[in-house]
Design a protein that fits this description.
Elements lengths: L1 H33 L5 H19 L4 H10 L4 H23 L6 H22 L3 H10 L7 H30 L1 H6 L4 H22 L2 H15 L6 H26 L3 H18 L2
């Protein structure tokens, strides 16, 4: 019990944050999967990371922000979140505009966008004065180093995103699959698209700033994919998705400790293993 108390005092923030994102991000990934936009789960977090790197590049032009960085060793959370979230929202709006053109291969453009965002991330981090010092910690996403401020950001964003998904889930689905029917029912398709951009942008931006893009990638992509085969119905699909996400984040803690590896990649590997088990017992 004394060892358990010691581990909780050191890693309690990271464990609570992993549970929060283990529910929130798989649900967002399920929405993207149902809309056949799963590739956005790859490109949007990378754009968010590029926005964060761009914020680090611009930090010397904001003396107050740079003073906080020199004092505490990291930029203010709101400053980082603003760049990461705005970059994610711009990417979503841009890809939506491309999807509206009938002669555009959206999947190819998303792949090109991912390469562009990855290259921009590397270049901005190379040019940023503080980029080399923060690149590994920020982009690998050491959730073990998460402090109380980061935990509050994760909990606040997760709560808002889950509340938005609960309130507007039917609107999101009907607007995605049958826009004419949504309009006939009195719903605004444009409102649904704007709300989705805000929710995904906030979740991805907050996730990249606090837990890193690797963990965001893993929880957006893998749980919906492995949960799709099974009994039909939206509720069963969502339940399997959340179960896979929670099992992955919880089982990854002992795996990360025993193997002495970063937590983010551990979640990706454990999620794949959980997916294989779910497929076997489906």
């Amino acid at each position: 019990m004394s060892e358990l108390g010691l581990w909780w005092s050191l890693l309690g923030e990271g464990m609570l944050a992993s549970i929060a994102v283990g529910v929130m991000l798989p649900l967002l990934g399920a929405l993207l999967f149902l809309r056949k936009s799963a590739l956005l789960g790859l490109a949007v977090p990378q754009f968010s990371a590029a926005g964060l790197a761009f914020g680090l590049f611009l930090m010397p032009f904001f003396p107050a922000v740079q003073a906080v960085f020199l004092e505490h060793g990291h930029p203010p959370m709101l400053y980082s979140f603003a760049f990461a979230a705005i970059a994610a929202m711009v990417a979503l709006i841009g890809f939506a505009a491309l999807a509206s053109r009938s002669n555009t291969r959206v999947d190819g453009m998303i792949a090109v966008g991912f390469v562009f965002a990855l290259s921009a991330t590397i270049l901005f981090l190379t040019a940023a004065p503080a980029g080399n010092n923060l690149a590994e910690t920020l982009l690998r996403g050491e959730i073990i180093l998460l402090d109380q401020h980061g935990l509050l950001v994760v909990l606040a964003i997760s709560g808002l995103v889950l509340a938005g998904l609960t309130a507007y889930w039917r609107l999101f689905l009907v607007a995605a699959f049958d826009k004419e029917h949504a309009v006939a029912l009195g719903h605004s398709v444009q409102k649904a698209e704007v709300l989705q951009v805000v929710l995904v942008g906030a979740a991805v931006g907050g996730g990249v700033v606090t837990i890193g893009p690797v963990l965001v990638f893993a929880l957006l992509f893998i749980p919906p994919l492995v949960a799709h085969p099974g009994l039909p119905g939206i509720r069963g699909f969502l339940l399997r998705t959340v179960s896979c996400g929670l099992a992955s984040v919880l089982l990854s803690w002992p795996v990360s400790f025993v193997l002495d590896v970063p937590y983010g990649p551990s979640v990706a590997l454990v999620a794949c293993f959980v997916g294989l088990v779910m497929r076997f017992f489906r």
